[in-house]
Amino acid sequence: MPMHAEEIERLIRAGIPDAEVTITDLAGDGDHYAARVVAESFRSLSRIARQRAVYAALGGRMGGELHALQLTTAVPD
Amino acid sequence: MSDQTAIDRIGEIVSANHIVLFMKGTPLFPQCGFSSRAVAILDRLGAEYASVDVLQDQEIRAGIKAYSDWPTIPQLYIDGEFVGGSDIMMEMYEAGELQTMVGAES
Fold first, then answer.
1. Is B71 in contact with A62 (Cβ distance < 8 A)?
2. Which residues of A touch B69 (CB under 8 A)?
3. Segment B21-58, tens digit of pLDDT
4. Which of A47, A69, B43, B62 is the most buried (most CB within 10 A)?
């Protein structure tokens, strides 16, 4: 079952409270998303650690029901 | 099913190759958009790399996720270290960091 964009956003926000999350439905099919996650708490983290934090927030769905999520992480300007 | 043999095999592959990409399909015929993007980045950099098609080996396909504690494929390894997936490769490429890493030996 594909996930809804709102659900992805909600999970990331719940896991990373200071995150600003932008979800784009890349193919318009409810299955291929891009997520941009901007959080101050990422500042001290490596790229891998930032993505792991997002994956953790998604609670194991990544690579499973959520197979196509293009993920960009950043810190606020 | 990420038993020890798969982990050992992955460890051998990763240490035997300066740069290795675990992907779906082959560099010539990637079977997924993310793998295709990873290949495009490495090719753009002119990097010489080994690749492993996880679709041809279910043991490796499951094992690689446990090996790096990373849930997705593709996965790039340089000098035995897990670098990241295609999103991280793209970020590092855009920041000019990947160029240095893949060219480190040339």
1. yes
2. 52
3. 999 999 999 999 999 999 999 999 999 999 999 999 99
4. A69
